[in-house]
Design a protein that fits this description.
This protein is mainly α and about 190 residues long. The protein has ten helices and no strands.
Length: about 190
């Protein structure tokens, strides 16, 4: 897949901090892809696109939410809207047709029930890339190297606890993702 046009967009439109984060996610995603048998090119492409709208203003995101027909729950919610918008734009404007890559970008913040391995790789890579520094990130990095499902479950559980403690909106996809992994790890039936 030719990623020159998205690389050019990133170079021209994103802050140095965001560029560094995306590069960290790319490297981490490719390493995790190799570890868990995911196509490296797909992981690289999804990582490149995942935050293409993360640095834009709430007004711009709200414009896209309205004009792309997204649910109103994404209005004024930069954390949740940016991945949904990026997924639509990567398909519409950049010609990415692979549903697995599109879903990995769309759900990289929230997760979802029955995530593919690529979706899990991007979800975790975003959480543990080398530039991330928060309580528990080293434990999460260790878990990601040992068991991708358990790492995702740990990250989802921590996210749920944090968002609830802040009194912020918690996307139902995050709850469903956690519940799915909890139920299927016990039975040993995840992908």
């Amino acid at each position: 897949m030719n990623t020159d046009s998205i690389s050019s967009y990133i170079e021209k439109n994103l802050s140095e901090k965001r560029k560094k984060h995306i590069e960290g996610v790319r490297k981490t995603a490719v390493c995790l892809a190799e570890r868990y048998g995911v196509d490296r090119e797909k992981a690289d492409t999804a990582a490149l696109f995942h935050d293409m709208f993360r640095g834009v203003s709430a007004d711009v995101l709200n414009y896209y939410v309205k004009h792309l027909g997204l649910d109103s729950k994404y209005l004024d919610n930069v954390n949740l809207a940016h991945g949904k918008i990026a997924a639509i734009i990567m398909e519409r404007d950049y010609g990415v047709k692979d549903r697995d890559i599109i879903n990995a970008v769309s759900y990289h913040t929230t997760g979802r029930a029955a995530m593919s391995t690529l979706e899990k790789v991007i979800y975790i890579a975003d959480a543990i890339e080398p530039g991330r520094s928060y309580p528990g990130v080293d434990e999460l990095r260790k878990a990601a190297g040992e068991d991708l499902d358990r790492a995702c479950l740990l990250s989802l559980t921590r996210t749920i606890d944090y968002v609830k403690s802040q009194g912020r909106f918690l996307d139902e996809d995050t709850l469903r993702a956690r519940d799915y992994l909890e139920a299927n790890i016990v039975r040993g039936e995840t992908e």
